[in-house]
């Protein structure tokens, strides 16, 4: 839980003036927790998958969670953690199909469409830069219709290395001709934010409310925004 007033605090810090849009030509955006409500992913991995696994193996929901959670945590931050094919092998379940079952929970965060529309109008290059597996991407782009906003969609699986690693950013820089000094990156993962900052992306912004079901929590050391309303001053730079 966030301490009392943390939400107000992050709002104060996130005045659009802290992002100098006139200096930025490239926008790099994470997907889950940044553009999309992380509630879908948390519900899927923490509740729905354990339920299906419990039914298959005649376990209680809690017994299933006790078995599955440590397996997930052991791979956290590695490419395997984000790989549906890997978990399909481990759990002997069609993970992509199971995600379809709860796809009604896939939601775009507030003000994201306005932000993307403004960014396109101002001729910014916009890249979706995600650790999500291509099968997850297909499902989420189909549900959200966001694909047309992006110049390209880059999955860490394309490079065989997660965003947490410097090697990802080196490959991205070459692939899209990235000028680090004119780029902005948005993400909700502290380890990924640190990785982008270490690589030298000039403006790195943390999403302080990745899930609609979780309290706002300020991420120290970064510009924080709760919603993209706080990052849409583009209209002032026509």
Brief summary of the model shown:
By secondary structure, this protein is an alpha/beta fold.
Structure description:
The protein is of the alpha/beta class. The chain folds into two domains: about 5-35 and about 110-235, HAD superfamily/HAD-like (Rossmann fold), CATH 3.40.50.1000; about 40-105, no CATH class. The chain contains ten helices and six strands, in the order H-E-H-H-H-H-H-E-H-E-H-H-E-H-E-E. The chain has helices at about 5-15, 40-55, 60-75, 85-90, 95-100, 110-120, 135-145, 155-160, 165-175, 190-200; strands spanning about 25-30, 125-130, 150-155, 185, 205, 225. A six-stranded parallel β-sheet has the order 3-2-1-4-5-6, sandwiched between helices. Helix 2 crosses helix 3 (about 60-75). It is globular and about 60 Å long. The protein starts with 5 loop residues before the first helix and ends in a 13-residue tail after the last strand. Mean pLDDT is about 90; it is low at about 1-15.
